[in-house]
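so my prof wants the structure for this chain in the tokens format not the other one, which i didnt know existed until like an hour ago. anyway here's the sequence
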Amino acid sequence: MLKNSSAAKRERQNETRRMRNREAKSAVRTAIKKFQLAAQANDKELAKEKFDLAIKLIDTTGSKGVYHGNTVSRKKSRLHAQFNALNKAE
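here's what i got, hopefully its the right format
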């Protein structure tokens, strides 16, 4: 049991933030997987659509502090490489 009310409030806030961050990270992972599936199927229009959504979600989570800036850069760089490889293999 927590010793005082401020510790209890802090615990409630941490739980709320943890769940919000978890949901945001899950959305990013799902968007990346959908892009990769479209890229594997060589569906360029769908891949472009999913790529734009994934980049948007990654930027949003980075700006909110869910992901570190370097993590955002790494994820975006890898997605760009996959997208460029898809477009180059015409």
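also thought this was worth mentioning. The mean pLDDT is 96.
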